[in-house]
Amino acid sequence: MKDRKEEEAAFHDRVRDDRVEQRWSPEAETATQDNPLWSNFKYYAIERKSLDFYRNWLTTNVKNKKVLDFGCGNGEESIFVAKAGGFPTGIDISETAVSNSRKQALASGVDEQTTFALADGESLQFANDTFDLAMEYGVLHHIDLDKAMAEIARVLKPSGKMICTEALGHNPIIHLYRKLTPTIRTEWEVDHILRKKQFKIFDKYFGKIEMRFFHLATLAAVPFRRIPFVFRPLLRTLESVDALLLSLPWVKWQAWQTVFILSDPKKH
């Protein structure tokens, strides 16, 4: 593999561990607070709306479907899909991630329903039209987007769809934070957080894209995440503020995250 891919693989080998649950919780944050590579973990305390949308879509669509988990991490989304009746194949560039995913699937009782493999997402070793669906969470800014999307469109069936959750790169305050914390991400990652221009690449390989925008005002709730009687009502209130703010065309691109659905894959 090229140096860039070797750096990505080594980085994700370092940050992966074998916790069953990677989502934010006070207990999980305590377990990772001494690891500087997880210093941004606290921000995921407010991701409820985007995660609910993502997982509700999966629950509705994956039953009896072959699903590509593109960049499977520790396998939690593949396990979720398997429990919802789908048949996921998880791939990752990190050997540690693949090993962890297999362990978690076995512990969750879905190991016979899941497959995990070490793979290069820019050169997939699957036949054309293999998968009904694909999914990814925070992976696309780690790769050469043009090469990867061509491969994903190729291995999806003509009726296939892909759901993606990604950070956005337009908010100057959020992006300054990324620049000031270079040790918790790779150099490639910092420079390839998605912006509007990257979405033109999706247009090359998919006929339709549906976007939702999440998390702007809600970031203000992060400092209160360990105080449940403050955090929960504050988060609900700020989610209502976001519903208004992120409906505005000139504000929505300042969000932290977007969840989008790609459909009508174009075969090149």
General description of the model:
- By secondary structure, the chain is an alpha/beta fold.
- It has a single domain, classed as Vaccinia Virus protein VP39 (Rossmann fold, 3-Layer(aba) Sandwich).
- The chain has 10 helices and 7 strands.
- The protein has helices at 3-15, 26-32, 48-61, 76-83, 95-108, 145-155, 172-180, 187-191, 196-205, 228-245; strands at residues 66-70, 87-92, 115-118, 131-137, 156-167, 206-214, 257-265.
- Strands 3-2-1-4-5-7-6 form a 7-stranded mixed β-sheet.
- The longest helix has 18 residues, at 228-245.
- The radius of gyration is 18 Å and the shape is globular.
- The two termini are 24 Å apart.
- The model has no long low-confidence stretch (mean pLDDT 93).
Assess the beta-strand content as a share of residues: 15-25%
CATH superfamily: Vaccinia Virus protein VP39
* N→C terminal distance: 24 Å
Strand order of the largest sheet: 3-2-1-4-5-7-6
Helix proportion of residues, in percent? Answer: 40-55%
Order of helix and strand elements from N to C terminus: HHHEHEHEEHEHHHEHE
Beta strand count: 7
SS class = alpha/beta
CATH class: Alpha Beta
Question: CATH topology, what is it called?
Answer: Rossmann fold
The whole-number mean of residue pLDDT values reads 93
Instruction: Give the total of domains.
Output: 1
Which segments are poorly predicted (pLDDT under 50) over 5 or more consecutive residues? Answer: none
Largest sheet, if any? 7 strands, mixed
Task: Give the number of helices.
Answer: 10
Question: What is the 3D form?
Answer: globular
Radius of gyration: 18 Å
The assigned CATH architecture is: 3-Layer(aba) Sandwich
